[in-house]
Amino acid sequence: MKQKRRRQLELGLVAQGSVRGAAPGAGRDRRAADRLDLGYARLRQLYELGALLGSTDAKAAAPQALRCLGHTMPLRVAMLIEVSAGSAHTFALRAQAVPDAEVDLAAAHARSCLARLAGVTQLAQGRLELGAEPLPLPAKSGAPGRSPFAALPLLLDRREVSGALYVRGARALGEADLAFLSAAADQISLAWDGHVAWQREVRLRQRAEALDRAQKDLVAVVSHDLRNPLGALLIGIQTLRRWPQLEAAKVREHLDTLHRAAERASKLVHDLLDVARLDAGKLVDDLTPVDAGALLREAAELMRPLLAERALTCETRVEEGLPPVFADRERLLQVFSNLIGNARKFAREGSTVSVAAWQEEGEARCCVCDEGPGICAADLPHVFDRYFQGPHGPTAHGVGLGLSIARGIVEAHGGRIWVESDEGRGSRFFFTLPLAAG
Ligand SMILES: Nc1ncnc2c1ncn2[C@@H]1O[C@H](COP(=O)(O)OP(=O)(O)OP(=O)(O)O)[C@@H](O)[C@H]1O
Ligand SMILES: [Mg+2]
Questions:
Q1: Tens digit of each residue's pLDDT (9 = 90 or more) over 169-181
Q2: What separation in Å is there between the alpha carbon of 217 and the centre of ligand 2?
């Protein structure tokens, strides 16, 4: 019995101190004792809230945090709202039997309170997530409709309003209730603050690690892949200088070798510069309407002599009436060259390379297909990674930058790139581009 009463008290159900048959003086003592009890219960809730927020991801703990508040205060709705990119994402819990319409109204009101707290005119409605567990509201509490509310700011760094704690009570909210809610909001702010700082630190560490990796990769590539062609150039030039009387055919042979070495070195330097531009977000210039079909045919024409060296036929197919795409012409040409260049490298001698463009789902799609060895399932998720190289093809290998650059270019256009392949049955590289009219 005593325990039942204490529970009711915690929920604020019985007028504190109203014990039938008690003497008048005893009533005052009882009221004071009840207030003390409630105070202790709330202190315990705050302590539990702090422990909860400290031990888990502060944002993921929202359902338990809100239920924590409901244990000592009868609430119809409780919400945690977070401001993110100008819109308010809300997580809400409601007591049993509180209808959807009341939750929606409360969410809209909470958003306008938060907009006022943050000093902005309005906040767009973001995600509204409703927790499955109900708030512990006792059966006999009332006040639907215009129930009393409280909205408390959640502050980042003690300055910036990053969200709000919003509740609608099942009875009037007194000063003690507001003090409790304010202390809870402080706890939640502190935990969110810690969470944001931790995320920032993780991001900084990841960036530093990526930079460190990129630098090591760069040193490895320059020292390994650039040294070979430069070495070939030096030796070739020395030979020509030492033996000026060399017959013409031999001289041409040496010059061809020197030319290939210089081309390899130049391609590598260009690719490394592209990677650096990609990282700086400066790889792609202004996008203008471009005829993707004409560009695809141009790319195929440019590659035709190289394809012919391996007796490869290039077929092009462009859907009639394909609208222009938004693109940086030179960079889009580079994507086609990289993909067709790979097909040339890996395809079976004498086979066909097909290049196509068409419209699908409101965007342009392009495809480069070959009849080469294909890519094994284990390698498929990695082919667009920087410096990734699978098994060597039948011709000279590169350094594994071509596809990562192609991906960077396509994504900078707002498109996607992917590959489908079955080992032994060729590869099909696809990419999408936004239509200029879209
Ligand atoms: N058409 C293809 N057929 C089979 N494997 C391919 C094909 N295209 C790419 N790959 C695989 O993906 C890897 C990465 O390709 P990517 O174009 O990035 O590098 P690369 O061609 O080896 O060198 P680079 O392009 O820098 O000269 C290749 O090494 C190869 O293993
Ligand atoms: Mg390549």
A1: 988 888 889 999 9
A2: 17
Name the closest-CA residue to atom 30, ligand 1: 390
Write out the DSSP string of 147-207: --EEEEEEEETTTEEEEEEEEEESS---HHHHHHHHHHHHHHHHHHHHHHHHHHHHHHHHH
Give the whole-angstrom CA distance, residue 108 versus residue 120. 15
Mutate to test the pocket of ligand 1, among 275, 389, 422 (most ligand atoms within 8 A of CB): 389
- What per-residue confidence (pLDDT) applies to 27? 77
Query: 210 C-alpha to center of ligand 2: Å?
Result: 22
Q: What is the pTM of this model?
A: 0.61
Q: From the CB of 400, is ligand 1 less than 6 Å away?
A: yes
Measured distance CA(317)–CA(366) in Å, rounded:
10
Residue 299 scores a pLDDT above 50: yes
90 in Cβ contact with 81 (< 8 Å): yes
Highest mean pLDDT among 24-38, 130-144, 393-407, 415-429: 415-429
CA 296/CA 431 separation, integer angstroms: 13
